[in-house]
Structures are given as C-alpha cells and as structure tokens.
Amino acid sequence: MKLKKIILAVIAILLIGGGLIAYQFYGKIYGTNVKEDTAIYIPTNASFDEVKEVLTPVVSNIDSFVWVANQKNYPNVIKSGKYLIKKGMSNNALIDLLRSGKQTPLTLTFNNQDTLEKLAGRIAAQIEPDSLQILTALTDSKFLAEHNFTKATVLGLFIPNSYEFYWNTSVENFRNKMLKEYDRFWNTDRIAKAKKLNMSKNNVITLASIVQKETAKVSERPTVAGLYLNRYRDGWALQADPTVIFALKQKHGQDYEVKRVLNADLLIDSPYNTYKNTGLPPAPIAMPDISSIDAVLNSENHEYYYMCASISNIGSHEFARTLSQHNLNAKKYQQWLNKQGVNR
Fold this sequence. Notes:
Layout lengths: L1 H29 L7 E5 L5 H8 L6 H10 L9 E5 L5 H10 L5 E5 L5 H9 L6 H8 L2 H6 L14 E5 L5 H15 L2 H9 L4 H14 L6 H13 L7 H12 L37 H8 L8 E4 L7 E4 L2 H18 L4
Antiparallel strand pairs: 1-2, 3-4, 5-6
Helix pairs in contact: 5-6, 10-11, 10-13, 11-13
C-alpha cells in the first residue's frame, strides 16, 4: 500500500512537472510578447543578430523569440522589409509574419524639390536606399541616354504625387517605376498640347518650373504661363526673376538667400539668366507640380507681356500689356520693398 502511494505520488509529480514544462513551452510559442503597435524595418541581407537588434526594444522577452525562431528555422529565411506588428502578438505569429515576407507598403511623397540632391534626400528618408545610391541611379549615363535625359533635366522625370512602394524597393525599381509614372502622366492629350505649343516635354516642364517659382497661387498660374508663352513665341527674353535666383544659387550655394533681385544680379553670366538669354533655360529650375505643368499646357489666352508682384494683394501679381503700365506697377512695388527694408 505504501509503495502504491509512492508510485502515485511520483506519477503526480511527473504530471505536474510535465504540465509546467508544457505550459512554459506553450507560453514561449503562443504567449504575448510584442509590447506595442509599431513598424519594424528589416534591412536587406540582414543577419539574425541584426533582426534581434531591431526587435529587442519592442518585445518583452527576446530570448523566447530567439528560441521559437530557431525552432521555426527563421534565421535561414530572413526577408527584408517594413512590417507592422501588433501589441500582444505571440512569437509564433510574429515569426510567421516575418517568414511570409508580407510587408506593409508605404506611401511615398515628394514635391517642390529644387535640386536632384534634395530630391534624393527626400526619397532616402522614406525608403531603404540612401541618397547617394539614389543619386547614382538617377544620373547613370546609360539610363539618361536611353530615356533622353541629362543630369540637368532628369529632375523633370519626377511628377509630384503620392506613390505606393515597399520600403526595401531597390534604387533600380524605384527609378523604373518613376519612369512608368512619367510615361503615364504624359498621355496622348498632354503630348498633343505640347506639340501644339511646339514644345518638347522638357520644354514644358522647364517653363512650368518657372511658373511654379513665380507664383504660389495655383489659380494665377495659367495667367503667368500665358504671359511667358507670349514672350516666348514673340522671341522676347522671358526676364523671369526665378531664373536669376537659380543662377545665383548655382554660383553661391543653395543656402544663398535672395529676397530681392537687384539690377546687378541681372548681369550674372549663366545660361539660366533669362534676362541675358532669350528662349528657355537649358533645364528646369525646380520641380513643378501638376498644376504648373497643366497651366503651361492649358494657359490663359491674353495679351499680357509684363507682370510685377502686387502690393495690394500679397502673393498675387499685377499684369500689364504695355511697358509704361508695367513701369508704374514696378515703381509701386520697389517703393514698397524700400519701406519694408528689403534690400537683398
């Protein structure tokens, strides 16, 4: 009888011990471990140690994650990307997500980037490749030649909008998608309108970049575009202050601030100076948005040849058909600048 009790006691201890061990294993696999809703980023070609470094701040027990990951062979099937993980996820669910490669896409945006370098920086802040990799891909001589761009004009490839990408998109895939979006934007209707103006796509984007810089008022852009097209068609110098500012920044650096264009500035020796050169500059001076491009393609038909910033409606312009009328507007504006103490 005594022996029987001993045997039963041993069995009970083994069952309890086994149950505890089973519970511990179950907790490692199916218990909650993720501490918060967040996004994690697994780099391309990441090692398992790098994955652990990414996950350590967001899980309660990294050792239990490592144990389950090894049981599921995850260290040998690591897939890069951006993953959204949820508070309370188990190691099992987390590893299944990471093994699947079902990453979450992101919405990539850019607009009003004055230079290719600024654009590359803006893109690099949103996807995995760094700005140098992006710049190298965009200025690749073979790519430029195949698609009729130069290092100066390739900024016109980018149509400001929102685009869906995966975080770990390669620079080549990013560049190729932007090319597809560019071709999609330049549909038959827009191409026909450009031909009617006797302009190439680059011509339109270059003029649109001037319009973009000339006025932030979207409703005014077709009027401004019509004015520059009047000058362009009649062989006049465009005399666009934004092109002079662009030339000054090329000479003095992008941080050079110009609040007022001086007469001396109009003498700067640059192919972008539209006071000294007739026709369009050789390339865009900025990244025009869709409203500026369409303003050129659908410009207002009028007889204005001159414009000056308005002092009665700040942010807008006073338009004129004659030089004498323009000189009156310009005199008012210069006097206003003097009163404001704007000397540069």
